[in-house]
Design brief:
Blueprint (H helix, E strand, L loop, with lengths): L2 E2 L4 E4 L6 E4 L6 E3 L13 E6 L16 E6 L5 E3 L11 E3 L5 E5 L5 E5 L5 E5 L5 E3 L4 E2 L5 E8 L16 H7 L3 E7 L5 E7 L3 E7 L2 E9 L10 E5 L4 E4 L9 E6 L5 E5 L30 E5 L5 E6 L7 E3 L5 E5 L3 E6 L6 E7 L14 E2 L5 E6 L6 E6 L1
Antiparallel strand pairs: 1-7, 2-3, 3-31, 4-5, 5-6, 6-7, 8-9, 9-10, 10-11, 12-14, 13-14, 14-15, 15-16, 17-18, 18-19, 19-20, 21-22, 22-23, 23-24, 25-26, 26-27, 27-28, 29-30, 30-31
Length: about 400
C-alpha cells in the first residue's frame, strides 16, 4: 500500500491562542463518525478515511471516493490500509485497538478488514431493495457486526440526500421498512434480527455487552416521537431508552466508555441539524441556538433509568464525553468548546474557532476524545477541503 510523509503543521488558534495540530493536507480527510473513535488504544495512531488516492480533486459535496488509512502520530506517516471505496466518508468503525475495521462500500456491501493480515472478508452482499443506512457496529465479543438497512423507496432515492440535509424530512416520511441486520465476522452469513415501520439509523452495540445495543428512529428530531431504542439480541425485543414527551427533541446519542447512552434534548422546534447558512434544515423559522425550553443532556443506563441530567444552556451540534463523563467536547456554530459537567451546573470554555462550513456530513466537526481523555480530534473544511485537526489538552 502507498505511504505519505508527514503533513502535520502547528498553528495558533486566532480566538484562543491554543496550539492546534493540522494532521492532513492532501485531498479530503475525515475522522470516523462521532459515535466511533479514530484513536487506536495502546498506540499513538489514528484510523481515518481519505480520497487522496482517488485521482480526482472533488469538493466534499461532490461525493469523493474515500478509502481507509492510518496515521502514525509520532512520525506523521500516513499509510493506506484498504483499496475498497467506502459508501461515505464516515462509513467505517473499528475495535478500540484498531485490529478489526468494519465498513460499508459504495455498492452497499459490508466488509471487515483484519489490519494485521490485510485480509478483507465480505460479510453482507448488497440487496438492491435496501441501502445500508448506518455505520456497522462491532460486537464486544468480536464475533459479529450489526447495522441498519432501509428500503429504497424510489428510483430517485439518491436525490433524497445531499449537502445541507437534502431530503432529510422526505426520507423520514417515505421509508416504512427499516431493519437491523446481523452479520458474522467470519463471513459465514447474515440475518435480519429486527424489522420496524420507520427509517432506522445509528445502530451501536453496547461497549460491554455483545447481546445489547441501541438504534434510532431517524429523521428530523421535532418529528420523531421516540428517537432512541434499545434492542436485546436474545429476545429481539425493542424498548425505549429515554421516553420522550411532547416537548422533547432528542438525538445525537452515543455509548459512553462505561456503558451508558448519552443523549441531547433541545426541546420543541429543533430538528437536530445545522446548515452552511447557520440555520436548521427543516425548521427554518427557528434559529439553531434559540430554545423554548432549557436544553439538557442525559445519561441512561441499560434498564432505561436516567442516571444523570444536566441543563445545557449552550448550543452544540454534537457532544462527545471523556472517559469518566465529567467533560464534554462540543461543536457549536463557530467554535469548538469544552463543557464541564462534573458539578451541578455546566460551565463552558472555548477551545478553538473551527471555521467549518457545515455544508456536508463529512465537514461536520464531529469532535471525539482520545481513549484516555488527553486529546481531541475534529474535522473542518476551512480552505475548501476537509482536514483533520488535533488538540492536546
Amino acid at each position: 500500500m502507498t505511504t505519505w510523509p508527514s503533513e502535520i503543521r502547528e498553528f495558533k488558534d486566532e480566538k484562543t491562542g491554543r496550539t492546534i495540530k493540522q494532521l492532513t493536507s492532501t485531498g479530503n480527510n475525515v475522522l470516523l463518525y462521532f459515535t466511533e473513535n479514530s484513536f487506536t488504544q495502546g498506540k499513538n495512531e489514528i484510523i481515518f478515511t481519505s480520497d487522496r488516492v482517488s485521482g480526482e480533486d472533488k469538493a466534499p459535496h461532490e461525493d469523493p471516493n474515500y478509502s481507509l488509512f492510518r496515521m502514525n502520530l509520532d512520525t506523521g506517516e500516513i499509510e493506506q490500509i484498504s483499496e475498497d471505496i467506502l459508501r461515505s466518508a464516515t462509513a467505517a468503525t473499528k475495535t478500540p485497538d484498531s485490529q478489526l475495521i468494519a465498513f460499508s462500500t459504495k455498492e452497499h456491501d459490508v466488509k471487515a478488514l483484519d489490519v494485521a493480515t490485510g485480509q478483507t472478508t465480505l460479510l453482507y452482499e448488497h440487496d438492491p431493495a435496501f441501502e445500508v443506512a448506518s455505520v456497522p457496529s462491532i460486537a464486544a465479543n468480536r464475533q459479529y457486526v450489526a447495522f441498519c438497512r432501509n428500503e429504497i423507496v424510489t428510483e430517485n432515492e439518491i436525490h433524497y440526500r445531499g449537502a445541507n440535509y437534502a431530503g432529510f424530512k422526505e426520507r423520514f416520511y417515505a421509508i416504512k421498512d427499516g431493519r437491523i441486520t446481523l452479520a458474522q465476522l467470519d463471513g459465514s452469513g447474515w440475518l435480519d434480527v429486527f424489522r420496524d415501520t420507520h427509517q432506522l439509523g445509528h445502530f451501536q452495540f453496547a461497549p460491554d455487552d455483545a447481546t445489547f445495543g441501541s438504534f434510532c428512529h431517524e429523521g428530523p428530531w421535532n418529528l420523531v416521537t421516540q428517537r432512541i431504542w434499545y434492542l436485546d439480541f436474545i429476545t429481539r425485543e425493542a424498548k425505549p431508552c429515554f421516553r420522550q414527551e411532547e416537548q422533547d427533541s432528542i438525538g445525537h446519542e452515543f455509548w459512553t466508555q462505561d456503558g451508558y447512552v448519552f443523549f441531547d434534548n433541545r426541546g420543541p422546534g429543533h430538528d437536530g441539524t445545522i446548515t452552511s447558512h447557520r440555520t436548521q434544515a427543516v425548521v427554518t423559522d427557528v434559529p439553531v441556538n434559540e430554545n423554548a425550553m432549557t436544553p439538557f443532556v442525559g445519561l441512561m443506563d441499560k434498564k432505561g433509568n436516567l442516571i444523570k441530567r444536566i441543563d445545557m444552556p449552550f448550543y452544540c451540534n454534537h457532544y462527545h464525553a471523556n472517559p469518566d463523563n465529567t467533560l464534554l467536547v462540543g461543536d457549536d456554530v463557530d467554535d469548538l468548546v469544552l463543557i464541564d459537567i462534573s458539578g451541578e451546573e455546566a460551565t463552558l470554555t472555548t477551545l478553538a474557532n473551527h471555521k467549518t462550513s457545515w455544508h456536508t456530513q463529512s465537514s461536520h466537526c464531529h469532535p471525539t476524545w482520545d481513549w484516555d481523555g488527553s486529546r481531541i480530534l475534529y474535522a473542518s473544511d476551512h480552505g475548501g477541503r476537509v482536514q483533520i485537526y488535533l488538540i492536546e489538552l
